Amino acid sequence: MEGKSYEEAILELEAIVRMLERGELSLEESLEAFQNGIELTKHCNKKLDEMEKKITILLENEKGEITEKDFLVE
Questions:
Q1: Structure pTM?
Q2: Cα-based distances in Å from 32 to 28, 35, 38, 59
């Protein structure tokens, strides 16, 4: 999972959701797909947290100095 990009993880997660919505999987297959989906969600959240930290670091103030600020989602 570590080498997987955010975009790859999202595409895989969307495929899992579609499979679960169709309801064609056995109970065991559904549970396995659900568990995989949870892991993909955690991976995506981790990637988003990493990007948020990079954005925070890259913010520059009016003096041209690079300062760290919290990233606020509106």
A1: 0.73
A2: 6, 5, 10, 41
Dihedral sign, Cα of residue 10, residue 15, residue 20, residue 25: negative
Q: Which two tokens stand for residue 23?
A: 């309801």
Q: What spatial distance separates the first Cα and last Cα of the chain, rounded to whole Å?
A: 30
> How large is the C-alpha radius of gyration of the chain?
18
Question: CB of 30 within 8 A of CB of 20?
Answer: yes
Q: What is the pLDDT of residues 10-68, one digit of tens each?
A: 999 999 999 999 998 999 999 999 999 999 999 999 999 988 878 777 776 667 676 66
Tokens (6 digits) for 66: 């690079």
The Cα–Cα gap between 11 and 15 comes to 6
43 with 1: CB under 8 angstroms? yes
